[in-house]
Amino acid sequence: MPLTPGTPLLVRGRVWSLEEDEPLPGTVVDVWHAGAGGFYQDDQEEVLHRARIVSNEAGDYEFEAILPGYFEQSPGKVRPRHIHFRVSHREHFELTTQMYFESDPQAAKDPNVKSELTVPLRTVKTPDGEYLRCRFDLVLSSTR
CATH no. for residue 106? Predict the structure, then answer.
């Protein structure tokens, strides 16, 4: 059950090295997103909707979140639902990117949303309720 209101979301993925075509263990994956109401909550005493994960030996990472709300960037300009990622590994260039959801009607309207950054959401039913899940693999380019 999430700590804040919203639809529970489980995000999984693997971090890869582009040149070696191998998983990258020990990669730091920083994530942040707006709450269900579309607001970032960095200005409060408790910082919400942020996480730092380190990929395991197989390069896998996983985090629990809520489905982000629509962020109003400026009056009349609403961003699609998205999660920010900053990914770093000692032997690779840092990557900053965003993940979007293919079922989001706002994503189809935004010319900056690329298909390779868009993931399908799957509904998982459990005895305790439902949650959404998705997979978002990340690829880093080597500094060598």
Answer: 2.60.130.10
As to burial, measured by CB atoms within 10 angstroms (0-12 exposed, 13-18 middle, 19+ buried), residue 45 is exposed
* Helix or strand (DSSP H, E) at 108: helix 105-109
Judged by DSSP in three states, 105 sits in helix
Give pTM, 2 decimals.
Answer: 0.91
- Strand-pairing partners, residue 66, are 8
Residue 57 in tokens: 């030996």
Confirm if 99 and 114 have CB atoms less than 8 A apart: no
Cβ distance 6 to 130 under 8 Å?
A: no
Question: What is d(CA 56, CA 44) in angstroms, rounded to the nearest whole number?
Answer: 31
What is d(CA 51, CA 20) in angstroms, rounded to the nearest whole number?
A: 27
Q: What range does the domain containing 135 cover?
A: 8-140
Buried b (16+ CB within 10 A) or exposed e, 69-78: bbbeeeeeeb
Backbone angles phi, psi at 105, to 5 degrees: -65, -25
Q: 51-106 pLDDT, tens per residue?
A: 999 999 999 999 999 999 998 888 888 999 999 999 999 999 999 999 999 989 99
